[in-house]
Design goal:
Length: about 280
């Protein structure tokens, strides 16, 4: 019988993350479970992530390549993707040791980036794909279409294509809608766009979204995947975004409605809701 192996993926620089990682490794290894750190190519059954949402998104890229779930411990600020807080570390380890968790699957997106020289690169994102101007003083000239038909073009600091999971991240900060995670949809939101039609759009899961960096501009753009990985997009580049066949798998310790997580993480006022006499 193969020994169980779990990856412990911590924030690189935060001391509390390093200390938490040591604690987790000690608890798991005492239970007979092998542990590996970030950078290992060992096949694991689960990834425990110690940090904020950025660290969780880093680990998500590895988790999807191995097709395993991840569980986040919030050591950041909002920690929207995290399942536990630092004070619940021992309980989380116990639940992981016993396999006492449910796996929730989240829709993700793929991006195909085709540059004018004919090169094609691909990316995967759990949260968002962002096409951004590299010149803060000048907007990028961008056009987009859906399912092969042109929709609009304008000057903008960028365009953000998010998943329902990512709708509470960069998309939310630019005024885009919050989308419940069980909805299958792509959300397109412009960033500081100049034009008559600059609203966010919610597209169906089978939509093929194409963004073009128009050739009549001088600066390059950048294509960011989950804020972690970046590709250059010179004028004339085309970015094709579709629903991915590869989901993100989140290990959940507690079953709760998304509305409860939204209220908790954003500290929303709800005292007047159905107030009882």
């Amino acid at each position: 019988m193969n020994k169980r192996t779990i990856m412990v993926f911590n924030h690189r620089k935060r001391q509390e993350a390093l200390e938490a990682a040591r604690t987790v490794c000690e608890i798991l290894e005492k239970a007979g479970i092998a542990t590996v750190g970030r950078g290992s190519d060992t096949q694991v059954e689960l990834i425990i992530v110690l940090g904020g949402d950025g660290t969780i998104l880093e680990a998500a890229y590895i988790a999807q390549s191995q097709q395993v779930p991840l569980v986040g411990v919030n050591l950041g600020h909002v920690g929207f993707l995290a399942e536990a807080e630092e004070e619940n570390l021992e309980d989380l380890c116990r639940r992981v040791i016993n396999g006492d968790y449910q796996v929730e699957r989240r829709m993700c997106i793929d991006a195909e980036i085709r540059t004018p020289d004919g090169k094609i690169n691909t990316e995967w994102a759990a949260n968002d794909i962002a096409v951004l101007s590299t010149d803060s003083g000048h907007p990028a000239l961008l056009a987009f279409g859906v399912d092969g038909g042109a929709v609009s073009e304008y000057g903008a600091d960028g365009l953000i294509v998010s998943t329902p999971t990512g709708s509470t991240a960069y998309n939310f900060s630019v005024g885009g809608p919050v989308v419940w995670p069980d909805v299958q949809a792509l959300v397109l939101s412009p960033l500081a766009a100049h034009g008559l039609f600059t609203r966010s759009l919610v597209l169906g899961p089978t939509a093929v979204l194409e963004i073009q960096v128009l050739p009549n501009q001088v600066q390059d753009c950048e294509v960011w995947a989950d804020g972690n990985r970046v590709l250059q997009a010179p004028p004339g580049t085309s970015i094709r975004v579709t629903k991915s066949a590869s989901d993100m798998q989140l290990a959940r310790l507690v079953s709760q409605p998304f509305s409860a997580r939204l209220v908790k993480k954003f500290d929303l006022p709800v005292e007047g809701w159905r107030r009882r006499k």
